[in-house]
Write a structure and sequence with these properties.
Elements (H helix, E strand, L loop, with lengths): L19 E5 L7 H13 L3 E4 L14 H13 L3 E6 L6 H4 L5 H5 L4 E4 L4 H11 L3 E3 L3 H5 L5 H11 L7 E3 L4 E4 L2 E10 H7 L11 E6 L5 H13 L8 E4 L15 H8 L7 E3 L12 E3 L2 E5 L4 E4 L6
Parallel strand pairs: 1-2, 1-3, 3-4, 4-5, 8-9, 9-10, 10-11
Antiparallel strand pairs: 5-12, 6-14, 7-11, 8-13, 13-14
Helix pairs in contact: 8-9, 9-10
């Protein structure tokens, strides 16, 4: 597992029962009731959540000022007693925090970091700029605080605890858009944020990757436009395979003579790599946890994604 500069990626220490985990809000403001339910869930998993100082702050559409949100993250990375960092929710705002982070300090303090949606930018920043595995998965308030997520909670706990049972994912409800098998390092996340990364210092690197793509509440023509933007930016060249999430509320109207799957096939018509759709790794009621930066084998035939390891040591 190597990043763009060729450095070997570090796997953070696995989470153990009783470990203290920081809960930060790097993006949008957090609902206190959802947060409370999510914190109770984290405690039932056996870990002790520690709230960032500004996790319940609010500044317009953000969870506090850029400086405060960055300070919470840096404080948690620097705190040796904090063994992992779970994001409270996504929303919007991670892109404003990235320039305020210190990659050298973060690189010296690798630890489990989990988030999704807007946090996509932070996850790929940690992999590409800080050289350690990050985890695309459920968030404390935004997911655990809203849905039961029975299967996701179990896989989350197993994977982050280094239990091998959590590293193979099979989804019978997935749809095969292109057949085949592939092997590559997993990267990606929310489609909107992958596009937003283009032209920035943290632009998503996709060559030789199995690319995760998911989104929510986007009209099909917008999904089509973003996929074409990535295609025309060369981001599908050298890709080994693509796994789409459920694309919640992104589907074509019921009376339409076409589907979102049709639009996706059109975008990828010139590529031969396997493509799965409707994998439970997005904004749905279940969200499995994926270690970004870890090599995996993808099989469209068995509708599976199997990681070489859990991403932790």
């Amino acid at each position: 597992m190597k990043n763009k500069s060729g450095n070997q990626l570090v796997r953070p220490d696995r989470l153990k029962p009783g470990d203290r985990v920081g809960v930060a809000a790097p993006a949008g403001p957090v609902d206190p009731e959802q947060l409370a339910r999510g914190l109770a869930c984290v405690r039932r998993m056996g870990w002790e959540p520690v709230l960032g100082k500004h996790v319940l702050s609010r500044d317009r559409f953000l969870a506090g000022s850029d400086a405060d949100r960055a300070d919470d993250l840096m404080s948690m990375f620097e705190d040796k007693g904090i063994k992992g960092i779970f994001c409270a929710r996504g929303g919007y705002g991670a892109i404003r925090v990235l320039p305020r982070l210190d990659p050298k300090t973060i690189r010296k303090n690798p630890k489990v970091f989990v988030g999704a949606s807007d946090i996509t930018l932070l996850l790929n920043y940690l992999v590409q700029k800080c050289s350690f595995v990050a985890f695309h998965g459920p968030m404390v308030a935004g997911n655990f605080g809203r849905h039961p997520m029975k299967r996701s909670k179990r896989q989350f706990r197993l994977l982050l605890g280094g239990e091998g049972e959590g590293k193979k994912l099979v989804s019978l409800q997935a749809r095969v858009l292109k057949r085949g098998t592939a092997r590559g390092v997993v990267a990606g996340g929310c489609l909107t944020l992958l596009c937003r990364s283009l032209g920035t210092p943290w632009e998503i690197q996709t060559r030789d990757k199995i690319l995760l793509i998911e989104d929510v509440n986007e009209a099909p023509y917008r999904i089509d436009g973003m996929l074409w933007q990535l295609r025309q930016a060369g981001k599908f060249e050298g890709v080994k395979g693509v796994v789409f999430g459920e694309m919640v509320d992104c589907q074509a109207p019921k009376k339409a003579s076409w589907s979102l799957d049709d639009a996706i096939r059109d975008v990828f018509d010139e590529y031969s790599f396997p493509i799965l759709a409707n994998f439970p790794v997005g904004h749905g009621r279940e969200m499995w946890t994926l270690p970004l930066g870890v090599e995996a084998t993808m099989s469209a035939g068995s509708k599976s994604l199997a990681f070489a390891d859990c991403g932790v040591v």
